Amino acid sequence: MIKSSDEKRNGTGDGTRVNEIAIEARNTIKAFGQGGVAVRALDDVSVEIRKGEFFTLLGPSGCGKTTLLRLIAGFETPTSGQILLHGTDITHLPPNKRPVNTVFQSYALFPHLTVAENVGFALKMQGRPRAEVAQTAREMLELVRLGHLADRRITQMSGGQQQRVALARALAARPQVLLLDEPLSALDLKLRQEMQVELKRLQHETGITFVFVTHDQEEALTMSDRIGVMSAGKIQQIGSPREIYTRPVNRFVASFIGETNFLPATLGPEGARLSGGEVIELATPGPRHGPVTLTVRPEQLRLTPPDEPGALPATVTDWVYLGTDTHVHLQLRDGTALVARLQSNPSGETDLTRGGAMGVRFAPGAVQVVED
Amino acid sequence: MAETRFQPARIPGFAAIAMLAFVALYLPIFTLVAYAFNGGTSIAVWEGLSLHWFSKAWANEAVKSATLRSLVIAASAAAVATTAATLAALGTTRRAGFKGQTFIYVMINQPLMVPEIVTAVALLILFGMVKSWTGYQGLGYLILAHAAFCIPFAYLPIRARLEGMDLSLETAAADLYASPWQTFRHVTLPLLAPGILAGAMLAFVISLDDVVITEFVKSGGQDTLPTYMLGQMRRAITPEVNAISTGLLGLTVILLTAFFLLTRKRN
After folding, report:
1. Do B166 and A106 touch (CB under 8 A)?
2. Do A104 and B178 touch (CB under 8 A)?
3. Residues A41-56: what's their mean pLDDT?
4. Average pLDDT of A9-33?
5. H or E stretch including A267?
6. Architecture of domain A5-252
7. Nearest-CB residue to B168 (from A108, A125, A173)
8. Which positions ≥6 away from B39 have C-beta within 8 Å?
9. What number is the average pLDDT over the span B221-243?
């Protein structure tokens, strides 16, 4: 794997910890149902999550990300494979014996307890002295800025406040790993963005390993040190947000993270040849030959006059004004549809005409070969 | 916008029928309560306001002992029935659906389906045998019989409460280091409490009210308040029966009000 500058952010700056593994899933399979109708929610998944990092499991619903989280928490047992915590096999340890806590999607706060009692629950169950429980609950509520609401009932709290209580409750016993199951999905956009910043701050202040599950790729890119992209019960790619975005390994990852264009091409010694005959040079030519799929992000497309040398001839089919950007829909000679994302000019208008001829260039190094 | 829902209240004569229904429900009760305060000896002819029959009932040793016996039986039966019903409800809801689940529900709710008189005769015969074997003549038979027919009344509200409970709360408790017992003690049980309380109240009231099974199962000198009243009715009826009924009604109203206030405060 390429050591990029992103990797240095792992381990909360403590150089000796950088590659210490907090959680490891080894060849994990989880099947639901029996015999012929069994469905593999997790299909031979192996992943290593480093101590102190903010790791995100990203994928569409049903991809197995929540199942993996539940295996780590101990709510489910894998059909085969192992879960290790700091090298110790915890596959069959019940959830109450794992130093791992969860922030649930529905928050799952106890409605019969006050805010402070909710936060102190884990410590009380561990049999800590009453004074310590109260003290820690207070500190945790301060940490999530709810110190003034300690004696409120859960039912008197707004959704955003409940979210913070759930966080404080899960952090109170200082778990070695904090699991977060789509905790922001019930919040509105503004609150969600606030909580993203808040979560990063909490992770930084506590130094606890965070495993975050989401289907929101923007959320994943914003917060994560590393992302594991999942689909159909398998991990498709693991890497920093930058690696995932700029070097997607396959078609699924490329299209799930951000928007992208795909071009069918044939690899040869001179580069990738499109079916229209044009040749595109690749920054990192693969060892393969034959038919491949190329991908290039819309923001890496440049429009040029139609007759510019080296530009691909294209026709403008449509454009959509999106405020900051304008999406220009193009068609190449071989029929391939492309989208270019251009920064809007101050007036928001363009001098494009539907059916007009244009040239298209790709930014250097922007074109990638992906697996299908 | 045109009204799209079916509205029974718009049917001609709805108000009149509703009033009639309420009169049928409450007029007998009002009459009974009113004549409890009658000064004369008739339950139909008004002869002035008096608390005479209340003080007479209060001083009646037979009423006192029957009342006490009713309360002891109802409290014991409610306790036994509620415990059994709570365990049954936990056993039938806290697991994946299983084959024969409906059959188990039917089995538990047997007393709601088998005619009470059949159960009464069956118990009379069975307890008769047990009595001749053991020689035991105490209140245990009545308590056991009452507990048995109270179980479904306790079971239904508890199961409803359990089914409405968010299972992720128990998962969260386990995640926060609670052992299975601690999860039950600190999460499931407190959340279930209103259901258990409702079940216990219902069981208590049902037991307090029972005539048929009690009449068949009781040994000599084991009259409960309802069977005592039934016995009185066979002789001369005086407003004393009204006064006792009014007392029983008052007790039930107080219990139900207390239950309502308690559960409302909890939620």
Report:
1. yes
2. no
3. 94
4. 72
5. strand A261-268
6. 3-Layer(aba) Sandwich (3.40)
7. A108
8. B47, B48, B49, B50, B52
9. 88
